[in-house]
Amino acid sequence: MMGGICSRKRDQPVIEEGGVSRVVSGRYGKSSSSKWLGTSSFRSTVEQSPGVAGICPSLLELCISKICRDIDKYSSLSLLPRDVSQQIFNELVSSQSLTHDSLQAFRDCALEDVCLGEYPSVNDNWMDAICSQGSSLLSVDLSGSEVTDAGLDLLKDCSNLQSLTYNYCDHVSEHGLKHISGLSNLKCLSFKRSSAISAEGMHAFSSLLNLEKLDLERCPEIHGGFVHLKGLMKLKSLNVRCCKCVTDSDLKAISGLTNLNELQISNCNITDSGISYLKGLQKLNMLNLEGCNVTSACLESISALVALAYLNLNRCSLSDEGCDKFSGLTNLKVLSLGFNSITDACLVHLKGLTKLESLNLDSCKIGDEGLASLAGSVLLKNLELSDTEVGSNGIRHLSGLKNLENLNLSFTLVTDGSLKKLSGLTSLKSLNLDARQITDAGLAAITGLTKLTHLDLFGARISDSGANSLKHFKNLQSLEICGGGLTDAGVKNLKDLVCLTWLNLSQNCNLTDKSLEVISGLTALVSLNISNSRITNEGLQYLKPLKNLRSLTLESSKVTASEIRNLQFAALPNLVSFRPE
Amino acid sequence: MKKEDTVKLISAEGFEFVVHKDAAMVSQTIRNMLTSPGGFAETEHGEVTFPEISTTILEKICKYFYWNLQFASGKQTEFHIEPELTLELMMAANYLHT
């Protein structure tokens, strides 16, 4: 049931290969995924301001906006300077108003970038105008379109093309790929999740000697095709994540690509034997093996890659034996070992990794003793300890990690009393204390962490009294308290947390419309979840000032979908996702 | 307005628009001209000539300057652009970085 009852294990701040910590929402009792909220170029319906709300639009922006609205009046924009016509083009695309007809005005405009990724109705008929940009065209994105071999053929007029993106490509054949083989200036090629790319078809890539970046993530038919990449000595980045068809023999084929800097082979059918072919890739800086069926034996091969700074071994089958090989990888900055059967014994070998900034030990069999091994890793910024046996004793080892910014202690054994040992970690921005044994006292112990922007207390037992502590966190952007102990009185403490963009108070079943009165002033809110409460339709009026709201979840309350729709229509143009719907 | 707070913007046809300095500096190009230490010859006397910008367009641009200041101070209204001016105005805005 939506807005579920107990705190389930949800996705945690994931430490990505790039060292960027990103909070991914789980499924139960949670607001919908934040992934699209931040990056979508959602247009406000206010006609006048193409820029960000509040910032004065430039005269150029105003004129471009006007031309876009009247685009049918212009038969050709080729006399405009290219940077201007490029801006008009981009604006038409982002406002979803470009059509095949208005596209014709852009013939011979010397555009450099044609970004039509997942733009509706793009097909072969569009390619003529697109390719008329000729040698000016540097990048094109046709992802999700219906362009076929015939359309790709026209690209040969664009001899300077550096980047071609055609993800979700199912309408092209081996024949069509041959048309690309002459584009010798191509540096970046992306065909994510494209059944059109076969091993034989990859022969077309063998002439692309300037290729630096190749993305074939989730392509089901590429097994055996890597032999065609052998001559691509400039290749720096290869992504074949989630290609179940990729096996050890494919790695043998790329063992000579010694300029490779970044290799992503997560969730492929690789074993320890395949990894041994990578030993010669001395420039490898980033290696992603998440979800591969490798064991600690592969560490022998990996230890040869001394340049490695990012290593992802989440969900492999690692054990302690062989982990001594970590100690030689002294350039490691980001190391992910989540969901492996490693213990404190493994952590001892990480002591010498002085450059370590991010460490993911989610669901590993580590405990307090293991944290002692980390006490000297003073550059650590991100530490993921969710679902481990770390407890109050172990926390004291972290008190010297003054650079710590993101700390996840959800589903560990830490208690209220030990949290004061974190009070010196004043750089902390994101803290996850989703654990039932954390209560008001624990929250009170960390009120000195005033730089906190993200605080997750999902299953912690916070009552109104504990909510008093919240006013110290004036920089809070994201807050989750779903333990059921809050009433309207407690919510009053959120009044001054005006930086909040993400708020989840679901499962506090005593919250009424009175809480919405307080939330009414939090005008930066983008996502709000108060499911499993006593909110009614009458409370919705208080949400009218929340002009930035894009996601609203009020499941299992007295609110109806039709009333939310009315609210959206009347006051909240940016609201794209709501439940009930 | 005091003379020292103003600049004179001159169109292709020789038409002179006297505007407040703050208004003129909404244009990054004009701002650079007026604040650059080396000094542009034309701006020594607080005058800038735009031989490529017609009077009608320059007048509209000055109106934009004042609209911009008003917007920034909280009074947010619509800035109407006559359809026949749009292209020329856009080119001038691009040049003036405004």
Provide structural commentary.
The complex is a heterodimer of chains A (581) and B (98). Chain A is built from 18 helices and 22 strands. Chain A is an alpha/beta fold. Among the domains of chain A are: 54 residues, no CATH class; 120 residues, Alpha-Beta Horseshoe (Leucine-rich repeat, LRR (right-handed beta-alpha superhelix)). In chain A, the strands form two sheets. Chain A has a 20-stranded parallel sheet. Chain A starts with 13 loop residues before the first strand and ends with a strand. The N terminus of chain A is likely disordered. Chain B is of the alpha+beta class and 98 residues long. Helices cover 42% and strands 13% of the residues of chain B. Chain B contains four helices and three strands. Chain B has a three-stranded mixed sheet with strand order 2-1-3. In chain B, helix 3 packs across helix 4. Chain B starts with 5 loop residues before the first strand and ends with a helix. Chain A: Pfam families: LRR_6, LRR_8.
